[in-house]
Amino acid sequence: MIDVLNYKLYGDVTVYDIIVVIVVMALATIIAKLITTNLRRALIDKMKRDQLELMLKVIYFGIIIVAFIAVLPALGLDLSGLLVAGGITGIVLGFASQSVVANLVSGIFLISEKPIKIGDQVNIDGVAGFVEDVNILSTIIRTYDGLYVRIPNEKVFTSNITNYVAHIARRFEYVVGIRYSDDAEKAIEIIKRIIEEHPFALKNPEPVVFVDNLGDSSVNIVVRIWAPSTEWYSVKMELLWKIKTELEKNGIEIPFPQRVVWFANELRANVEGKEEGRQA
Q1: DSSP H helical segments within the chain, as ranges?
Q2: What positions does the domain Mechanosensitive ion channel MscS C-terminal occupy (predicted)?
């Protein structure tokens, strides 16, 4: 049996070497199959089917190719020249594809972690809008102006992401200024009533209305309201106008900026003297 295993088929390659090659390639195939199967189960609901299949094929054949290169010496093939040429090629390709690989890896992490989903309203590195698509290499944002912006996944993954709709509710705030002669308590009651009447103004968390500060020209009332994240902008626009018109109906007005100027006694006396002279 030992003589059979040591039998040389060609050059220094024996039957034992061929068996080792077959076993290694079989194990590599099994490992590649297990990895791609588990990845398919984990990512099937998080990635598009065509993108997932492409990624799994790259991983599968990548493992097979690495295993095949590893067993080439056992087949009597000299890899020294191939390694040198491959090393130079690898360096060149490494520099050329550095950003591509970074975007690919970042895309996998984004799809797995899912900090954003298609349809979410987000702000990524100053680009705000709706998430239109999350691909392996890039993320597409449709801005509020209707522009489509492609952001590389590496930038998305390393940037601060603000997701406006990740939480079910979102708060907005007004500062309403009224005249000093107006009744602040009455204004607060009117604002609270308007908020309670709106169907999308949430009661929990409870809205807050209070006098925040006494400004130069007005008494400033802060209004903080919670609304569903998907409706908050329309609620914000509607309530602001309703508050303004309802306050005016009740005689409470938003004042213009104004200044009270006091003159020194001498200047006042001079002015009064001139007026008396004119009257005389």
Answers
A1: 2-5, 15-43, 49-71, 80-96, 98-113, 153-158, 184-197, 232-249, 265-279
A2: 173-254
91 and 8 together in one domain: yes
Structure tokens at 166: 């990740």
**First vs last Cα of the chain: how many Å apart?**
141
Which residue range is the domain that position 61 belongs to? Answer: 2-96
How many domains, the chain?
3
Q: Alpha-carbon torsion 253, 256, 257, 262, what sign?
A: negative
Task: Give the model confidence (pLDDT) of 61-111 as tens digits.
Answer: 888 888 887 877 776 666 665 555 566 666 655 555 567 677 777 777 777
- Residue 278 domain-assigned? no
The model carries a pTM of 0.56
Q: Which of 172, 164, 181, 263 is nearest to 217 (CA)?
A: 181
CATH code where residue 154 lies: 2.30.30.60
